Amino acid sequence: MNSRTARANLFLLLTALIWGAAFVAQRMGMDHMGPLTFNGIRFALGALALLPLIANMDKKRTTAAPPLATLIRGGVLMGGALFLGAWLQQFGLCYTTAGKAGFITGLYVVFVPLIGIFLGHRYGLGTWAGAVLAIAGMYMLSVTESMTMDKGDALVLLSAFFWGVHVLLIGKLTSGLSAVDAIKLAAVQFAFCSLISLAGAAAFEEISLSGLWAGIIPLLYGGLMSVGVAYTLQVVAQRDARPAPAAIILSLEAVFAAVAGWMLLGEILTTQALVGCALMLGGMIWSQARP
């Protein structure tokens, strides 16, 4: 492993750590404001955090920039999927734990090949074996003795579907773009997601300055660290990392979410839930390592 690859893997590990801990920030934010308000502000902060990086990278540009309409069209499509994934996840966190949400969200790696079938993609046996393991793990983690799934877990599972859609859109819309243009596209999607969320918050939620101030730490972490810093690290790292190891490292986000939930919120998983988490993580890693 050369030094560039090693640095890339380290950046990806840091990204997974930041994203995993973000589930705690998102859970804590729900004590002070509604899910649409939280997402609207954190994605606005994330978009603003990318502006200095974009300005700096634009100075070093060596290729022609894509048409503005291309960035806006792609940003709106990605921002729409991002809004649905983030809103359902945030809403689900009102009713479930940060650790469980982290593992269930990770099932987007299973939804990606399932959705890809309808787009003409083909996947090997390893992908489907990993999917079966992950689904079995989700059953042990979330399904109760009465064969029902808790409301929060169901919402987060639905969000994982839209995260899968989002991943496929990123792959399609960033193909051929330079690093700076990929980050511009990200800023547009964050801004669009923020606008939809804030419009929804104004219509359906009560927004108060006291609530925003009380939740300022989760908001700053969710916006600047989870959205701004972590996304930038991911973009920089994946230029030098190999795809399969990168996906495996990023799947550790679920483990970090469970650890952060235990350390910071006192969340405890039962033995059955821990076995379910292990199966889900094994399935996610298998589907990426042996596709």
Order of helices and strands: HHHHHHHHHHHHH
Form type:
globular
The helical percent reads: over 70%
Number of helices: 13
Radius of gyration: 18 Å
Structural class: mainly alpha
Low-confidence stretches: none
Q: What's the rounded overall pLDDT mean?
A: 84
Overall strand count: 0
The major β-sheet equals: none
**Cα distance, first to last residue?**
22 Å
Strand content: under 5%
Spell out the blueprint of helices and strands.
Elements: H1 3-29, H2 35-59, H3 68-92, H4 98-105, H5 108-117, H6 125-142, H7 151-173, H8 179-204, H9 209-214, H10 216-237, H11 243-251, H12 253-265, H13 271-289
Helix pairs in contact: 1-4, 1-10, 1-11, 1-12, 2-3, 2-8, 2-10, 3-7, 3-8, 4-7, 4-12, 5-7, 6-13, 8-10, 11-13
Folded structure, characterized:
The chain contains 13 helices and no strands. It is mainly α. Helix 1 runs antiparallel to helix 10 and helix 2 (35-59) crosses helix 10 (216-237). The model has no long low-confidence stretch (mean pLDDT 84).
